[in-house]
Amino acid sequence: MFAFILSRILQAIPVMLAVALIAFGLFSFVGDPIATMLGQEFSVQQRDALVAALGLDQPIWVQFLRFIGNALRGEFGLSYRLSRPVADLIVERAPATLELALCASVVALAVGVPMGVYTGLYRRSWLSRAFLTFSLVGVSLPTFLIGILLILVFSVWLGWLPSFGRGDTVQLGWWSTGFLTASGWKALVLPSITLGLFQLTLIMRLVRSEMLEVLRSDYVKFARARGLRDRSIHFGHALRNTLVPVITIVGLQLGSIIAFSIVTETVFQWPGMGLLFIQSVSSADIPVMAAYLLLIAAVFVLINLIVDLLYYAVDPRLRAGRGH
């Protein structure tokens, strides 16, 4: 197991270095940080002093190594737009995005897996066809349109749920949570559905196709020949083997939910990292953009490692293969 984890970490190092190079390129070749920080009117002495303070007068490779060292310590400099440390902004906005991603993932799994199992077991029923039609709608409609339609129905017409913001939050140390307030839960409903709907339909269709394939396999036919009950066959054998490839997709989709929550956070003005990134792009706030890029890459690397470990634990063939 240790060798397996070590090999995955070693494979992740070149990926993170490549992402760090791209993020460093944003600093070096996009925009003019001196003009952004000093404004339109500044003296030559002020410019030279800031260039020296930022280390822009040093060779590129020295700047890159210093950038990597600072990134490992969680230091990404000051935001050009807000004049605050980027690490503080990330820590401030991360709870909102992570709570939204968690709720969206729970919605996708809690609804998508049962729907996939049902449509796989009862594929000719009218309810299964309704579920499949619903999944086509979820896959076809863009995220921003789903969010706008939900706001129109549940916020404008019915007035049941808020259309923007995070509601009231409670501060627990550095973490701000909306899970402890009623308005926080109400504010989570529409963004969670909007963000999780595509993943829900994807999981449903994947579970359905895997379930249909497993039910046609020889060991399921043998289990029926032995006289096992349908419930035991469906949930003790078929579903367990169906979930092996689902783990991979769910893990990658969780990373996608965190990385691509930008549209949902913009539609609902959710105060998370995605909205911070959009605001930074509009003002060419390079330190925030670079930090976001590195953070999302680290999230995907971590999720891939966790998925590999779960795959290793669930599928005995991998352990047997490494044993030989």
UniProtKB/TrEMBL annotation:
Q: Subcellular localization, per the record? A: Cell membrane
> In what way does this protein cross or attach to the membrane?
Multi-pass membrane protein
Could you confirm whether the keyword Signal appears in this record? no
Transmembrane residues, as ranges? Answer: 12-30, 98-118, 130-160, 243-270, 290-314
Q: Please give the superkingdom of this protein's source.
A: Bacteria
Q: Sorted alphabetically, which PROSITE patterns does this protein's record hold?
A: ABC_TM1 (PS50928)
Q: Boundaries of each ABC transmembrane type-1 domain copy?
A: 94-311
Gene3D superfamilies of this UniProt entry?
A: MetI-like
Query: What name does UniProt use for this protein?
Result: ABC transporter permease
Please report the organism this UniProt entry assigns to the protein: Pararoseomonas baculiformis
